[in-house]
Amino acid sequence: MRTFLLILAVLTFAIKLSAADTSASALSKTNTSALLKIGAGEADKHYGQEMIVTGKVAQVTIRPKVIFLNLDRPYPDSPFTVVMFPGEYLADVKALNGKAVEIKGKIKSYHDKPEIVLDSTNQLTVLGSTVSTNAPAATRPTHAPPPPTQSTNFPEIM
């Protein structure tokens, strides 16, 4: 009888431990998919954190090896900078000037200013865009306007 109670106690402990691992795993998955959305002016309070930063592109600076998007105000007064590296997917990055955007990623400090370095184009979303350009311009009929959409990913605005 004592052996039976001991086995029952061990099994109960093992089940509780397994349930705790499952709930911790579910919690971590939830936290990574539900990022906090903040304005560009608040980014300096969240260094090292994965966030969604919102703002209006006030300045686009294109250099041979790097592109900067300054949100809300031009450099050097910009509260937040997006850093991108040139590639085919950045055909007309100047079109982002004046657009409201969301940037997803880990906020880093560079010269005491917050920034996110884009690793992928799906980290940048243009908000409130009324033009969707999912198909290349050559395949869209020129007489019909493209369908409206709520937001587009960065590569789709080109």
Summary keywords:
158 residues; alpha+beta; OB fold (Dihydrolipoamide Acetyltransferase, E2P); nine-stranded mixed sheet; 9 strands
Task: Write a brief structural summary.
The chain has 158 residues and is an alpha+beta fold. The chain is 20% helix and 30% strand. The protein has one helix at 2-33, and strands spanning 37-39, 50-62, 67-71, 80-84, 100-106, 108-110, 113-117, 124-127, 151-153.
Question: Can you describe this structure?
Answer:
This protein has 158 residues and is an alpha+beta fold. It has 2 domains: 1-34; 37-157, OB fold (Dihydrolipoamide Acetyltransferase, E2P) (Beta Barrel), CATH 2.40.50. 20% of the residues lie in helices and 30% in strands. It is built from 1 helix and 9 strands, in the order H-E-E-E-E-E-E-E-E-E. The chain has one helix at residues 2-33; strands spanning 37-39, 50-62, 67-71, 80-84, 100-106, 108-110, 113-117, 124-127, 151-153. Strands 1, 2, 3, 4, 5, 6, 7, 8 and 9 form a 9-stranded mixed β-sheet that branches. A hairpin with an 8-residue loop joins strand 3 and strand 4 (80-84). The chain is globular. The N and C termini lie far apart (75 Å). Residues 17-32 and 131-152 have low confidence and may be disordered.
Cα-to-Cα separation, first versus last residue = 75 Å
Count of DSSP helices? 1
Main sheet, how many strands, which sense, barrel? 9 strands, mixed
- CATH class category name of the largest domain: Mainly Beta
CATH architecture of the largest domain: Beta Barrel
How much helicity do the residues have?
10-25%
Task: Tell me the structural class.
Answer: alpha+beta
Mean pLDDT value: 73
**Which outline best applies?**
globular
Radius of gyration: 23 Å
Number of strands: 9
How many discrete domains? 2
